[in-house]
Amino acid sequence: MTDTTAKIQIDGVHKFFGELHVLKGVDLHVEQGEVAVLLGPSGSGKSTLLRCVNGLEEFNAGRIRVDGELVGLREVTRRDGSVELHRRTDADIARQRSRIGMVFQRFNLFPHQTALGNVMEAPRKVHRLSRGEAERRARELLERVGLADRAHHYPAQLSGGQQQRVAIARALAMEPELMLFDEPTSALDPELVGEVLSVMKDLAASGMTMVVVTHEVGFAREVADQVVFMDDGLVVEAGAPDQVIGDPRNPRTREFFAKVL
Ligand code: ADP
Ligand code: MG
Asked: N or C end of the chain: smaller count of CB under 10 Å?
């Protein structure tokens, strides 16, 4: 079934790494402005799924659409009317990827650039913004993540939480239509987790469409519109946080939350 209103539409996605079947027919729809929080045990395929949405990983079957447009693939209609799927060109995949912001567990900031420099870099290179315009926007974004006073600090002079907030500002500088987060707080000391989640919460409130892989069940409860539980390459259960976390129907979901809560 084609749901043309979904911002992200994942249907029947399979992914193999060699013999290893890591996504086994994943279905997931995320609406415009929705926050979907993905939870599940290590190795269940969460990161791989995000990477497929972002065009960083090819998949073997199924369809992913962002704003109705096929990710990584394009339809080619032959003279006899049949439709074939072809891989998109690298340039086309790069264009699709540029609409999506991604934040990883490791911040991956450029170590030899300041916070400001990190946020200015991609808009300067990709969008060809002037230095002045890129700097003006970068300062606004640093302000938005609470780091206006750290603009001239280098990554090594920032805490992990501050570095991750710079990484979020850097992703936002490309004006993405949606944001993917892969365990953005997992590498942080516990006392730094809150400041990053708080920035993500503000972003959600601003209407950004977000898919967040996290073990922070409190964040899922508070911010998610949809909680998605993955296990062994499949979405086992998805729905409202109160239902999936508070009253899971599937035994595997129940077992998972019984352990983490
Ligand atoms: P999660 O993020 O839920 O922990 P992943 O998507 O990282 O799970 O991994 C799912 C499975 O795919 C795991 O068994 C993992 O070892 C395997 N895997 C992930 N990336 C690769 C890769 N590049 N090559 C081979 N196997 C991989
Ligand atoms: Mg992962």
From this structure: N
* pLDDT above 90: residue 261: no
Element spanning 75, H or E: strand 73-77
For 211, the 3-state DSSP assignment is strand
Q: Whose CA is nearest to atom 27 of ligand 1?
A: 17
Q: Nearest bound ligand to CA 43?
A: 1
Spatial CA neighbour of 233 closest among 46, 61, 51, 50: 46
**Domains (range + CATH), the chain:** 8-108+178-260 (3.40.50.300)
Q: Is the CB of 235 under 6 A from ligand 1?
A: no
pLDDT tens across 30-74, in order?
A: 999 999 999 999 999 999 999 999 999 999 999 999 999 999 999
Residue 181 makes CB contacts below 8 A (sequence gap 6+) with 102, 103, 200, 210, 211, 212, 213, 214
118 lines ligand 1 (CB under 6 A): no
Give the chain's radius of gyration (CA, Å): 19
